[in-house]
Design goal:
Layout: E1 15-17, H1 21-29, H2 36-42, E2 43-51, E3 54-57, H3 59-73, E4 74-89, H4 101-104, E5 110-123, E6 129-141, E7 144-152, H5 155-169
Parallel strand pairs: 2-7
Antiparallel strand pairs: 1-4, 2-3, 4-5, 5-6, 6-7
Length: about 170
């Protein structure tokens, strides 16, 4: 009697970290105050951001939105119960539509950080305390974020934006 070992997949060498340099940078991104010099180095010039279905192209355009959130829409911003981990995907890792990471991205290793927690703050115009769950993903290449995905219920954000616009038009 003999046994045959069958391998149904290539040897995938993907791994996850929580205390690595990339994860720690993502944690720093969520600091209560906006550190523009840090954020400038955090994001690549050719950044692409998706906030739900809203697409923002370029670091400069996203930084305008980020500054508006911190300086005009909300104060006392915190990300409570923050969890961050970073996935280091090997080229053999399965991506989407049956393709591997190596087929989807040209990098030797695809790096995605996942972060979630609860955004809290006080509307600068409304004076209301807001709190909503948020999930964000950051794709890093050459030490900078080149793609960011952000998922949350935009009701509080949109309400504060509308109040801000009304206040500006007076």
């Amino acid at each position: 009697m003999f046994c045959t070992l069958v391998s149904f997949g290539q040897k995938e060498k993907s791994f996850l970290r929580t205390k690595d340099e990339v994860s720690m940078k993502v944690r720093k991104y969520f600091a209560p105050s906006l550190d523009l010099s840090f954020v400038n180095g955090f994001y690549a010039k050719d950044l692409t951001v998706f906030i739900n279905d809203l697409k923002i192209e370029g670091k400069e355009n996203y930084l305008k939105r980020l500054q508006m959130i911190h300086n005009e829409l909300f104060k006392d911003i915190k990300m409570k119960n923050l969890h961050v981990h970073t996935n280091y995907f090997s080229p053999e890792a399965l991506a989407s539509d049956g393709k591997t990471m190596g087929e989807v991205n040209s990098e030797k290793q695809t790096i995605w950080s996942n972060a979630w927690g609860t955004f809290t703050g006080i509307g600068r115009v409304s004076g209301k305390k807001v709190s909503f769950r948020m999930h964000m993903d950051f794709r890093t290449k050459d030490g900078q974020v080149i793609e960011m995905l952000s998922y949350y219920d935009p009701a509080h954000m949109n309400a504060e934006i509308e109040l801000f616009k009304k206040a500006q038009s007076k």
